Amino acid sequence: MKTLILCIVLTVLGSNFTFGQLIKPGDRPDTLVTDSGTFRALIRGKVTQGTYAMGEVMEHMNYMTSLHRHNTFDESIYVLSGYMTVHIQGKTHRLGAGSSIFIPKGTPHAQGNLDPEPVRFLFTMAPSAGFEGFMEGRAEVLKTTKPGTTEFMKKVMVLVPNLDLEVLGPSPVKR
């Protein structure tokens, strides 16, 4: 838990955050089903005036992002359960529950779940970058289009200009 708090503090350090949203343990933001698993927006960027956003993700096994970077926001990840595989700075790391990673803006990386069990993690983005809208769009595309197809990726990529996501190539991590 200390690591999670540190990640959040590092992400929002120096921000002008004002109290605007409280989520208690019994509160449940909508859970979206996406091609990679599930997503919940815990703290939306609009609540923090774009300073940061926080979400919870559960990724299925054999999901891996492409090698990509975000040029305008930092990303922090805290693993709640399972194992996440992260490729950053030319090395691949397997992160278990309680592990965290800070990915500075502009850093090429890929992440996913190569283990048989789902991985659950929290992430923050600073500034918020509209990631919630991107995930909501992916969930909508999934309702009408089969994941893993060219058509699915084409529809999802239309959403990318609204998010600072520069795809650099396939993931360097072998499945």
From TrEMBL:
InterPro entries, per database record: Cupin_2 (IPR013096), QDO-like (IPR053146), RmlC-like_jellyroll (IPR014710), RmlC_Cupin_sf (IPR011051)
Source superkingdom: Bacteria
Residue ranges constituting the Cupin type-2 domain according to the UniProt record: 65-124
PANTHER family registered for this protein in UniProt: PUTATIVE (AFU_ORTHOLOGUE AFUA_8G07350)-RELATED
Protein name (Swiss-Prot/TrEMBL): Quercetin dioxygenase-like cupin family protein
